[in-house]
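Local shape tokens:
==================
===
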Amino acid sequence: MDPVTVAGLAAGIVQLIDATMKVMKYLNDVKDAPKDRAKLAREATSLLVLLTELRYMVEEAKSTDPWFAGIRSLGVKMGPLEQFKEEMEDLAKKLEPQSGIKDTTLDAR
């Protein structure tokens, strides 16, 4: 695989990692989170581990690695990585505290 394709795929994974971390931050900042939010935070943490592993595997891969052809299809325009990143960004926006509204469930920092 050419270096440009590898770099693009790795960049897409990094963007998804960033969006996942933002969701995790909002979920972890909620004090006394209900069970559903706590479960979602655990799932996001597990996802982050998998995405980080995928990122390093992609960066270290050789174009002759058999598994790499399948992984490449994840990074196509509007492919699974891009769609998932958009969903995580939408979730992060929904979880973001509204400006001008004091949320008493968040820890004071």
Q: What stands out?
A: The mean pLDDT is 79. The helical segments are 3-29, 35-60, 68-72, 80-95.
